[in-house]
From TrEMBL:
Cofactor: Mn(2+); Mg(2+)
Coiled coil: 587-667
Residues making up the signal peptide according to the UniProt record: none
Ranges where the Morc S5 domain occurs: 375-519
Cellular-component GO terms for this entry: nucleus
GO molecular function, one term: endonuclease activity
Alphabetized InterPro entries for the sequence: HATPase_C_sf, MORC_ATPase, Morc_S5
Subcellular location(s) of the protein: Nucleus
UniProt-recorded name of the protein: Morc S5 domain-containing protein
Amino acid sequence: MDNDAKQEYLQTSTPPHPVEETVTLIDLCSGGDDSGLVEQDVQRRYNSGGAKRPRGSSALDMNNAKKKPTADELKFVLPEGFGPSITTEASSGRVGSCNKQFWKAGDYEGAPGGNWDLSSGGFDHVRVHPKFLHSNATSHKWALGAFAELLDNALDEVASGATYVNVDMLENKKEGNRMLLIEDNGGGMNPEKMRQCMSLGYSAKSKLANTIGQYGNGFKTSTMRLGADVIVFSRSPGKDGKSSTQSIGLLSYTFLRSTGKEDIVVPMLDYERRDTEWSKIARSSLSDWDKNVKTIIQWSPFSSEEDLLRQFALMNDHGTRIIIYNLWEDDQGMLELDFDADPHDIQLRGVNRDEKNIKMAAQFPNSRHFLTYKHSLRSYASILYLRIPPSFRIILRGSDVEHHNVVNDMMQTEQITYRPQYGADSYVKDSNMSAVVILGFVKDAKHHVDVQGFNVYHKNRLIKPFWRIWNATGSDGRGVIGVLEANFVEPAHDKQGFERTTVLSRLETRLIQMQKIYWSTNCHKIGYAPRRHPKAGNDYGHTNTSPENDHEEYSPSGFKTRASDKFYSSSYPNHRGDNGVSGNDSSLYLQEELRRERERSKALEAEVELARQKIEEMSKEQENLIAIFTEERDRRDVEEESLRNKLEEASNTIEELLNKIKMLEGSKGPSWRR
């Protein structure tokens, strides 16, 4: 049975229908003798207008049909650095050995010199040095942000039938160290999509409305941020009459550095299902295939092609399995990722881990996510998405991550609708966009814990966790948290912040205003001294947006904002939705203000009465103490006088006894002596 399976995997064939528009070649992308190979399409599928180029057309002259060269006609000489031609020194990793600390891994220069005259299929090409992989990954300052990118990719696969993403730790049997596994049962990637995944900047998701990815850079930055090397296994079911495929791709920073490459080289293997057998898809020659196999085996955690193919047995008919290895270490030589602190979690060491916050999280469970999300993947993943499809699971080290909505940690909530006001220079995708802001006190606020900030989501994805925008002196603002989904601001490339635009600045200004109003209105309910209520013009209600009432103000980030940015509070259901305020609304607003003032006055009167009662009680206690002390002093004086008298009487008695003794001695005189 095993022999049959082995023969099935090793059977080779060529595609039954030759591809008319693509000639695949081995491209010499590097400038030295130690160049790397990469399979790529010389014939581009699309011209600048997006249409397919006719077969045989040249990129320089579309009207002159030319016969496309074959791999044999190009007579490329395979570079050193693959298969048997790799030297022992290179294979041992002595050449340009990879630094194990992420922030120092970019410190190398590659092979000196290089021939820049090489071209690919007749076209000059820009060379991408391997150091770019590292510098590109530095966009992730926070390692858990890299995990989020990979979780995004898995969640996007829900449209292709994905029901779970599994994140786990594996043992590298070849090297004896630890690896990361991220796998899903989505639609997988065919060979073309696998190459797009490994390419820089390509993304088909930017054209789709319900997907998170948009820049085509997340896979590369996230995997390279977590470890030096990644190997990807993906199986895709056949569609539209096409056969099922499975592909293997290796993106290895260790390989590129150790062999002194000056271009990014990605060895790949593709297989196609024919009836019940898997056959190799040989894009050029079997010799080139063998060199790709040897390169992947040498620089991956696997020891043979059969060992590689066993990974596909761990997935169903479709899915993707990503293994990241040679994980980065910290300055102390320990893995940056901590797998030992919690067997069902992956945590960070270093500055993101605060032992004081961990202890507080056990004491204040409603503030747990605020206190632990910076170092705990389980905590961060539980709030990463505003909504999770009911059938989708995030599994972390064998245990499901329980989705959590921070709104459930709030009390005394208020809901406010914010509508952004776009400037003349702003590109507006949807003028009806708005954000519903829910804010309130965290349920642990009565303990005066310093928890505050807004969870800002974009297209269901958390971009700014607990964004602290009001940095007031003292205790102002403590305990106020909020949640909103702002699809009208654009996230940055690392999805850990937003692009600094005027629209974002206006949102920031309004959020600060909301927090200040909420705090000053409600802080006395959780034990803080009442604050003076802000002026009516700063309330949740919107201001008049007519041109004569528009004025500019500056947000903390330095951008000008307009007072015409509108937001409405559900606390005031009679507020109009137009650009003005009716007389009836003004009357209702004043009545509401008077009612609040009466409530505050009553609260102050109650506090004053309570203070007066306490003062009276203290006065009575003081009088009682004085009376007790006076009585005690009088009693002590009487006792002292009595003792003094007794002492005097005793002295007199002693004196009398002494006199009697003398008298007796005198009367007995001489006779007593005889």
